[in-house]
Specification:
Blueprint lengths: L8 E5 L6 H10 L3 E6 L3 H12 L5 E5 L5 H15 L4 E4 L15 H29 L2 E6 L3 H4 L3 H21 L4 E6 L11 H4 L14 H12 L10 E2 L9
Parallel strand pairs: 1-2, 1-4, 2-3, 4-5, 5-6, 6-7
Length: 246
């Protein structure tokens, strides 16, 4: 498939975790230049940059705390100065936390989830989308999760459904600028070095009794960012092996 992404500039927020790094590498394989942001360790960020550079594309990196709009804006402007434009945003700010029952959910846990995921996504998108408007083209890809639909716990459900609503609002407002906005809702993916048996005991109740591979999620991100995917917007793509069917 010719994605038309060669020479595009892709910003991946949280580019060191088990979704972010494979996604950055997948875009690099399509010839896109990368702007990599992360609040995690600089060593992990540089390792992602090394894997991206191995694909023969250019890359810049920057530490960026989730929700810090000034840090992100500075990094985005560096990307525009280096590459001339910013075309694709992959916002992967999901916070891995153990589910809590509503009766035991503390305000601090609720606040952390909302501020990191939903509020963080708001600041990220609001800072980046205007740069896409300048070029009259763009792709916004926000990560959400199955909790939005399954109601696994109140904090995750509220935050993740909020990200979907944010994404659809962007899709409606900015379609006239050839900007699409979509969500990816993974059902979980095994980390490097883990086997299916370690992370997901086989169950007859699951349509596909395994976790996804990070590369499968990365491929989906590349697909919906492609030049020919311009009529797909405002959607929530659930890459979860059919777990939403349960």
């Amino acid at each position: 498939m010719n994605t038309g992404l060669e020479g595009k500039t892709v910003l991946v927020v949280e580019s060191v975790n088990h979704f972010g790094r494979p996604t950055a590498v997948a875009f690099a394989k399509e010839g896109a230049n990368l702007v990599l942001a992360s609040a995690q360790s600089s060593e992990a960020l540089e390792e992602t940059a090394r894997q991206v550079s191995d694909q023969g594309v250019r890359v810049i990196t920057g530490a960026c705390a989730t929700g810090n709009s000034s840090q992100l804006s500075e990094l985005a402007q560096r990307g525009v100065a280096e590459f001339g434009h910013l075309d694709v945003l992959v916002n992967n700010t999901m916070l891995p936390v153990a589910p809590e029952s509503f009766s035991e959910l503390t305000f601090n846990s609720w606040k952390q989830k909302i501020e990191t995921e939903l509020q963080g996504s708001f600041f990220i998108c609001q800072g980046i989308v205007p740069l896409m408007v300048e070029n009259n083209w763009g792709r916004v890809i926000n990560f959400s999760g199955l909790a939005a639909f399954q109601g696994s716990d109140a904090g995750s459900s509220a935050s993740e459904y909020g990200i979907i609503g944010l994404t659809r609002g962007i899709a409606r407002e900015y379609g006239k600028h050839n900007i699409t906005a979509n969500c990816i809702c993974p059902g979980g993916a095994q980390a490097p070095g883990e086997s299916d048996a370690q992370v997901y005991p086989p169950s007859d109740s699951d349509p596909m009794p395994r976790w996804g591979k990070p590369e499968e999620i990365a491929y989906l991100a590349v697909t919906i960012a492609a030049q020919d995917a311009g009529y797909l917007t405002g959607q929530c793509l659930m890459a979860n092996g059919g777990k939403y069917l349960l």
